[in-house]
Amino acid sequence: MALSRHHAALTRPRSVEEIVKEAQDFEFNTNRSLQQWLRASKMLLTEAAICEQEGSLAMAYLYLYRHAELVLSRLPQHPDYRDSRFKEELSQARKTLQRNLVKLEQWKPRINQEHDRYMKAMERKMAERQRVQNEFDQAARDRASYTSSRRSSAASTSAEDHMQALNANENREFAVNLAQREIRRRDASRQSTTQAGISPATIAERRKGLVAQDDSYFDDREDPNDGVREAARHLHRQSYNSPREAPREARRSRQSTYSAYHYPRVPQKESRMEWSAQPIRPAHSQSRQSHPPKIPAKESLYDYTASELDNTPPPRPPKQDTYSNPASATPSPPPGESHQPPSKYTFKPTAYTESGSPLRTVLLPPDLRQKFLNLAHPNTSQNLETCGILAATTISGALFITHLILPDQTATSDTCDTTESGDNALFDYCSSNNLLVCGWIHTHPSQSCFLSSRDLHTSSGYQVMLPEAIAIVCAPRYNPDWGIFRLTDPPGLPHVLECRKPGTFHLHEEGNLYTDALTTGRQGHVVEGPGLGFEVVDLRK
Q1: Phi-psi region of 412 (alpha: psi -120 to 50; beta: other; left: phi over 0)
Q2: Are 396 and 343 in contact (CB under 8 A)?
Q3: What does residue 439 show for φ and ψ, rounded to 5 degrees?
Q4: How does residue 12 score in pLDDT terms, banded at 50, 70 and 90?
Q5: Residue 253: helix, strand or coil by DSSP?
Q6: Among candidates 284, 11, 300, 236, which has minimal Cα distance to 104?
Q7: Exposed, middle or buried, 520 (CB in 10 Å: 0-12/13-18/19+)?
Q8: CB neighbours of residue 212 within 10 Å
């Protein structure tokens, strides 16, 4: 359902053809407003920008290609596509798409090269395993028990050997430290770019659209299609015509083989975007015995040179059973790990939707809720609701909430709504700062802690853009006085998206529409990270 279906990392390097196939696999629901889909398209650009920062070009390629698929093929199906209110925003989306073609063209050979190296490394590894297997078979009578142990170890070696997968809930202190270090690195990178003489406006544009360095490369003529047809043809050519494919006949044959991926055709059968069904698991070390003959060293599937063969990951940080007060000093990283880049780690998903799709872990500052209540107190004392937006960034496969944004809004005792200008300012701020809208937080000054029918519709808008999006409810007069929720998927999310009942508050026939999202819950993917800082941005007028 959601456009953004990114779980930890790709389990292996994939070819451009495989990435394109996944990029096209998402459900487009015309019951959602065109405005929501346009905002979702900007979220895809933000996901791509963050993936590029982390060096994950394959993931960035997937999000940019999906953005192209959405803008070129899906949005024209929407009933409001020709509404004059959206003309300017649609035109800008198409121009951004054309600019992103340069990125896609530059990344394609690098992605395919990595895929080729992986396949060759796999062939070498399989050959080595077979050789070791044959040696063991020769000595089976004398070393039966060792043979069994070694075969088991060889069989368990996988493509994830290059990266240490961690459970964020069991390693909260380390996760927070890793996030703080990566955020500092990104800030320093932005500052150096600014000092190099690039204007803030240009930086913001490149960050939002991943535009090419030379904007003069493009023709900004205002024609009826804004170059959409040419963009589609160019995207199709650069996605399938690789320089490494030699004869033209072979190229034609290959294009025929992948005819199901042709762009910008809408897939015949749309389905939910299922992203990386098998979560990454950490490699398990195994003790060695002294008697058997010496076995050749294992070769990493991702580290291909001899100088990189010694790639034993650092020791796993200890499990944190107790947590210090959030106001206490920032915990130090585990010994020997402070120098490691974020790419050496990934936080594996530990929670899943009701359909079995993995959910990225969301790390939430534990004192954010109280800070929000303090800001909302003037409204709460007058029996008025207050809402805020949770904005996050992705680091090593997890979502870290780093901003609490209060948009311009109107409120009653039972509702709170952002104004149109407040909505625009909110998404402009998130887009220009590479932030993902990860849900919302609001008060129930006179009601208990639950999601009303109106709250469900609000949450569905965020969750359709980002499956990990959450809703935090603060009900200071009741016990429990707060909760963190998400819509079930299914039945909650699809049911609410299809709901057309009038009225601010109405009943839904379907039960089990939402569930607890904290790690203590059955399907919880939210972890509180002691020491995780956040910024408050008050955009209220």
Answers
A1: beta
A2: yes
A3: 120, -160
A4: confident
A5: helix
A6: 236
A7: exposed
A8: 18
Q: Is the Cβ–Cβ distance between 352 and 383 less than 8 Å?
A: no
Q: Of the candidates 276, 303, 314, 313, which has an alpha carbon nearest to the alpha carbon of residue 397?
A: 276
Model confidence pLDDT, tens digit, residues 481-494: 999 999 999 999 99
Peptide bond into 407 cis (omega under 30): no
Q: What share of the chain is helix, strand, coil (3-state, %, to 5)?
A: 45, 10, 45
d(CA 60, CA 274): 17
Whole-model pTM: value is: 0.68
Contact between residue 52 and residue 208 where contact means Cβ atoms under 8 Å apart: no
**CA quadruple 511, 515, 520, 523: dihedral sign:** positive
Planar angle of CA 391, 427, 42, nearest 5 degrees:
95
The whole-angstrom separation of Cα 224 and Cα 467 is 35
Task: Return the number of other C-beta atoms located less than 10 Å from residue 311's C-beta.
Answer: 13
Contact assessment for residue 516 and residue 484, using Cβ atoms and an 8 Å cutoff:
yes
SS3 153: helix
3-state SS, residue 114: helix
Whole-number Å distance between alpha carbons of 3 and 10: 17
Block residue for tokens 């469900």? 456
Angle among Cα 116, 118, 122 to the nearest 5 degrees reads: 115
Residue 144 belongs to what H/E stretch?
helix 144-156
The answer to whether residue 289 scores a pLDDT higher than 60 is: no
Backbone phi, then psi, for 140, in 5-degree steps?
-60, -40
Extract the tokens encoding 238: 């650069």
**Mean pLDDT, rounded, for 1-28:** 76
Sign of the CA dihedral with 358 first, then 181, 343, and 167 last: negative
How open is the CA angle 289-293-294, to the nearest 5 degrees?
Answer: 85
Q: What is the DSSP code string of 364-393?
A: E-TTHHHHHHHHHHHHHTTT---EEEEEEE
